Amino acid sequence: MVTTSTFLIINPNSSKSVTDNLEEILPVPPNTTLKFYTGPPNAPPEIDGPETSRQSTEACFPDLHDHYMDHDGFLVCCYSDHPLIYKLREITKKPVLGIFQASVTYAVTTSPSKFGILTSTSSWEPILDQAVKDFFGGVDVPLFTGTVASNINVLKLGDPKYFKKLVERAKICVDAGAKTILLGCAGLSGLEKKLEAEFEDVKFIDSVKFGSELLNTLVRFDKN
């Protein structure tokens, strides 16, 4: 008998346009139902660092705790080592995954190719550089070429008039030797193929899409 799993795709900011885009572009894994969550009105409209990450956790966690824990897996769609991931893990044994962790896991599988991160605003560059180092136990990662900000507001990343700028900023990663570029913001979801068309032999990874696939694997493994 085939069982169906349900995943909660969590947008921890209050901008429903981000959630709407994810709902439109995310493939649904086999035997899976995707449910989507947008942060409540008191969550920040975008997350640009530790303070807004904390605010989004404080806004989302009570709501999720009280009303949304009956799913088989949870994907937190903020590209960071977001504190909401760890708060949810305190109250469930079901898989809780962040899109940052998922995408870096993908990058490890492409070793020895170098990888970089393309993100939204410059405030994320030192934060994500440190997060990658922490992911590998606090050591420098020679295969990591660094984080490059597009300097485009999260809510405008999908606007076609900014695409040329995304390409220009991605080229910095490529020129540094990256063969894999992790899309370091949920607002970049759905742009991976369009970006790949601009470069030769460079793979762009949609962190939300891969996060959903990895979550599916974790849930199936736990059920077996």
TrEMBL record:
<protein>
    <recommendedName>
        <fullName>Protein DCG1</fullName>
    </recommendedName>
</protein>
<comment type="similarity">
    <text>Belongs to the HyuE racemase family.</text>
</comment>
<dbReference type="InterPro" id="IPR015942">
    <property type="entry name" value="Asp/Glu/hydantoin_racemase"/>
</dbReference>
<dbReference type="Pfam" id="PF01177">
    <property type="entry name" value="Asp_Glu_race"/>
</dbReference>
<dbReference type="InterPro" id="IPR052186">
    <property type="entry name" value="Hydantoin_racemase-like"/>
</dbReference>
<dbReference type="InterPro" id="IPR053714">
    <property type="entry name" value="Iso_Racemase_Enz_sf"/>
</dbReference>
<dbReference type="GO" id="GO:0047661">
    <property type="term" value="F:amino-acid racemase activity"/>
</dbReference>
